[in-house]
Each structure stands twice: as structure tokens, then as C-alpha cells.
Design goal:
This protein is mostly beta strands. The longest helix has 17 residues, at 2-18.
Amino acid sequence: MKKLVVVIVTAVAVAAVAAPAFAQGSGRIEGRVVREAGGAVGGVAVTLEPSDRATLTDSNGSYQFNNVPAGTYTVRLTLGEDTEAIEAVTVAAGETVRADASVPWDIAFVDTITVYSASRRTERITEAPAAITVIPEEQIEREGTSGQIPKLLEFTPGAEVTQSGLYDFNFNTRGFNSSLNRRILTLIDGRDPSVPFLGAQEWAAVSFPLDDLASAELVRGPGSALYGADAFNGVLNLVTKAPRFSRGGKVQLTGGDLSTLRGDVRAAGELGGGWYGKVTGGYMESEDFTVSRNVASGGPEYKPCAPGRLDPFDCVDPEPVPLALTEDELVFGGARLDKYFGNGHVATLEGGMATIEGPAFQTGIGRVQLVDIERPWWRANYNTPHWNLLGYWNGRDAADQLALRSGATLVLDTENLTFEGQGNFGFAGDRGRVVGGASYREEEIDSANDQGFQTLMFAPREEDYTGIFGQLEYGFTDALRAVVALRWDDSSLHDSELSPRASLVWAVTPEHTLRATYAEAFQTPNYSEFFLRAPVAPPVNLSALENALRPFLGGVPLGFGNIQVLALGNDDLVVEEITSYELGYTGLFTRRTYFTLDYYRNDIENFITDLITRLNPQLGNINPDFQPYRPPGVLPPQVQAIILQQLAALQGPPFNFPFVLMSNAPDGSPILAAASYTNFGEVETQGIEAGLNHYFAEDWVFEATYTWFDFDVNPEDELRADPLAPNAPENKGSVGVSYLGDVFDVSLKGRFVEGFEWRAGVFQGNVPSYQVVNLTANWHVTPSWTVGLDVSNLLDDEHYQAFGGDILERRALAHVRYSW
């Protein structure tokens, strides 16, 4: 709690410095810029004449000037070559005046795109000091029928979208993907909804319809300098629609393949007195791509592993138990209240809940099915033009998760509470800007079942995290800008870490920008990597041996009747660190073609492996907490020797008992410590990411991407028995063409992924090359009624995207929507 008090005091101090109240004799100007045909216009340069103050409209088209001395002004709006003036804007002391505008401009795609995530402030995408992709609101509404967030980004530069089951996605950039990937920090309105034990996202737990998103921003490259741990390969920032700017509602019904039935509802409006509200909800039931691989069904899609084979490759072991459920069911809902104050301050309070039944996902210990999961959350936010205070809580009640490889029921109840304060102010006539803040998080994790037995750890955990960050921007000229950032993070799980970043952004011309970036980031081992205690196979029963030894034991139990075969965490792990060098180019040609090109080179140290055999031929015992088995110490030495001799004799045929893996749990009971994690060596990666959007007619868009990835492991660090694989292809790309008319729109996109090797825990094998073609179409029958079609894998190319993942087939969905 002492750290929490320090963080809150720091946040308040930042706010006090960065957010002066109305100066005496001053007022405020706020406004919104929209198209005459409808729709907000972001990225408009707004200048206040005769002063030298300037700002940009955000994605809602909104802008504001605070502490404006009383008087009469002209508000000038500029976007490219287009300009508009709002004259005779009179400001009175202590009052707010609105200056809205409806503009007739012919606006290019990139002109209006603003981003927030790269600098924690609103800026044009062409000015961002990082490689960044934005999925705008209109595209989300067209392509969001599936309800699967990662699919919005599968055709964007650098994105690695690996799907297994219906909601089992591993989303990553720049290599070293994994089951339960956590190298991309995902935020929803500033809230991190990941599962703390794993650090990965539970994509089925989203508690709003997908078209409630206002934007999705993907920052590629290390982001720890602003966001802390686990913003290792990037940040995915999801922003939902504010009710003030999305008044109205919709009801949508969706149905199709896999016996899918889904209903979504959203309603937002003004409540009076500066209050705005929003409610969302939905229900989905569907079959899944997941099929049972128990002994009876066989799992014919993969070659079965030979009995007793060690380190199996390109084969999948049968699962002793069948799926508990053969259908997925999701129920979700949320509510939000916003209060707008006259001084530009906004308070937000919202919360929601999602319940999940049925989806299965890959893990290092095999597939796990979510049988009964509840995910409640709340968020409170207070925002002003110069500071932001955020608090949120996430819960997870998972009393029933079925490990299909071992048959064990796994429990995982978690909650975390986070506070963050951030302030910003400009200087030197807004040529420079400072952003700074602090955060604090507490987490509690318990895997005990109703009998008090810990199913995933040896003991519950309570941890805390603290971070303080700052960023300085300065424009040396109108064309050259520097951005430097630094963050300090501390935790009860790891030593203090410093994460710097520095960027130079040079606008060679207003349409062509070059960028150079240096960044360092880190990834904390998750609770699973630190403290895992999970079964990877059915228990071994050696009760016959214990009965035979009973005359020597004097009533001392050995526990040989239920010897658990376990994957174990390693609490000696240290954080994984990355150093990145990046060059980027952004170009706009004739306001119709937008092109981005980025090259990066990363050096990774203290790389954390996936689960590997605990007794590695090169490294020896990778987990020093688990040494060779010791019989109970109360027994005489000669009896202990007899027990060890008898166990060793079981190693050969016909028993083939892996005595070499036998160890002791912390309570002294016997276990088979089969696999664990370790840090090792250095890995170098490099890659190229290219993206093109071309508007070759008013309503027609062509897009293409290409991504190249390469890696190199220090030869001294290569593990011969468990070679490292980046779980990513060397080459992949996509093309698409869309017609975006007012009444009808259609989009056809395809992506190609080169074959690659996949190694993640028990799943190790080759992923053949595959191609995916998606089709979306919408017909706006009337202003209120829309019918649409969404087809994933249009050509029905049966394939898997991660070895051991489910075989993916075509899924066609149709929807009808009523809006008001």
C-alpha cells in the first residue's frame, strides 16, 4: 500500500503541474469538424488567430482550446490544401463557446487518420514516431460481423494472426509467436484485459459488439518506454465509441456455418445535464473448429505419436478425455456513463461481464477447454485537456477448465486492480511537449479447487507492480522532430528495469516522412513460467511397488499410487530484454496512394524458452528447484537406498518408467518433473514490413502488404535437443480490393503464409503453407436496415495455422441489422 500512496501522490502532483485551472479572465473554445455528407473529420489542423496556438482534431473530429483570454478570435481549419475559417468567435471570461464546422472538402484517406498510442497523445499517423497501423471505425463496422478482434488485423503489415479454435488466436508481430502469446500488450480504453496467470488475451471475453469499437491501433515494435512490461513487440490499443459521439443504437442478428447464432444490441444517448450513456450486450452460440482427440475418436487430422516416443515432432498424442462441451456459448454485456463538465473535463464510469463456455485453446501442456468462466470488470476515468486519471479492476472466476491431455480439472481465479495518472503540457509555443505519469497494479492469483488443492501452482500468489514514465517531444523545425522517452518499472516478481526510446521524425515534404527509432523493452516471465504446477499426462500408479516395499516402510507412506507428471515453473528466470533499431518511411502520393515501409533489427537477451524437457542434454537440469527424487527423510538410509534401487529397475522394459525425471514437490511428495522453462542466450531478428493503400477511383480501394522475417540464434546457444523456432513464416503477404459505396460495399482480401516450423511445449511440427481468402459485403437497404455477408476462408482451404491447432474450414455468416 505504501507504493500505492506514492503513485497516487505522484499522479496528483503531475496533474497539478500539467493542468492549470481556468486562469482569471479566460474562457474556453471547443468544437467539432464534420463532413457535409456526415462523419467526423480527424487530423484537421486548428489554429487560433491572432494567437499562435494550434491543435489537431481527434478521431471524433473534436478539438478544444483552454485558458483563452477573453476576446474575439478566428478559428482556422486546415487539411492539406483545404482551409476554412470560423470568424468572430467571442470568448467571455469563465465561459465555453462552441465553434463547430461542416466542411465540403474532398478528403484523402490518410489525411484524417490520427493516432494516440505511439506518443500517448493525438497526432497524425504520418507524424507518429513508430510503425503503426489503424483500423478505422468505418472498416470495423463493415468487417466486424465475426466478433473476433484479431481478424480485423490479419491483412495488415507485420501482423501475425495465428488461429486455432474459433476464439483461440495468438496475435503477434516480429516473430517468436507462441501458444498464449503475450508479446503484444492489448488495451481496451486503457484497460489491460489479459489473463494475469498467462499474460495472454482471452479473446472470447470481449464484453461488447465488435462494431462498438471506434478504432484499433497497432503499434509495432518495443513499447515499454511508455507502457511497461510486455509491450515487447508492440501495443494493440482498442478504443470503444464514446456515447456522446455515437448516439443511437442497433440490433443485429447473425447466423451461419457451425450452427452459429448471435445477437448483439447497442444503445447510446444523451441523458441530460451533460450526462451520456451507453449499454451493450450480446449472446452467441456456435459449434467450433475444435474436435475431440480422445482415444475413441483418434483425431485423424494429425499423425499420432508412436508410444513411448520422446520429444515427438510432427505428431500429436491422443487426448485421454473427450471434450466436455461440443458448442461454444458466450454471454456478454456492459454499461457506460460519461459526464461532461463545462471546463472540458470528462468523467467516465463503466463496467461489464462476459461468461464463456466451450472454447478450447492451445497451451504448452496441451489443449485446455473453458467449461465455465466469468470475466467481470469495471473502469473509472477522469480526463481533462492536460491530465488523465484511470483506475480499473479485472476479475476472472474460472472454476472449471478441462486439461484434455491429462484429464485434470484446472481452476484459475484472478483479479487485478490498476491505477494510472498521466499529465501533459506544451512549451515553447507548443513546439515542445512533455508527457509523464505513473502506474500501480496489484494482482492476486489462486488455483485452488473446492477441496483446497492448488491445480496450477503450489501456492496462491499476490504481487505488485509500479511504473513511472516520461516523454519529451521537441520540434527543431517544422520538418524535424525528436521524441525521447524513459520508463522505470519495479515489481515483486523482478528487479527494476529502465526502458528508453528515442526517435527522429523528418518530414522531407509534407507528404513524405522518414523515421529512425532506438528502443529497449522487456518482458516479465508470467506466473505460469515462474510458478506453474500443471499435469501434462495422466498420473503414474506405482502402488504395486509401494505395497511390495511396505514391510520396510514402518507405516511411512510413499505416495506412489498417484505420481503426478508435471510441467513446472522456474522461479530463477530473469526478464527477457530486447534492443531494437528501426527505420521507417511513410509516403502519400497524389492524395490517393499511401505507402509505408519499415525495417527493424532486434537483439533479444535472456530469451525465455517454451516448455522444454527439464533434463536438457546440453543444459543439464534447467530447473534447480527440482533435484533427483529423495525418499522420505524419516526412513533409514538403507531403506531409502532400497527404494531408489527398485525405482531405477523400472526404467527398462516392460515398464519404461522415466525414473530420471522423478523429483519431489515442495511438500516432499513424489512427482515426475517432466518439463520447465529457462533463460538462454541471444537471438537476433530482422524484418521488413510494407503496406500499400491505393484509391484508384472514388469508391474503389486496392491494398497490399508484404512482411519478411529472419532470425539467427547464437550458435553457442542453440539447443540441439530442443531447437528454437520463431513460430513465424519468413515470408507472408496479402492483397485486397474493396468497393465502398454509400448503399453497397464489398471487400475481397487474400493472404498467403509461407510454411514454417512450430515449437511450443508439447506441440512441435511443421505448418504447411496456406492461403486464406475472405469476403465481406453489406447492403444498406434503407438508412435503418442493413443486410450483410462475412465469409472467412472463402475457398474452403482446410489447414492449420499452428501445429496442434484445429483444422480451419470455411465459415460463412449472414447478418441483418436495424439501426436508429
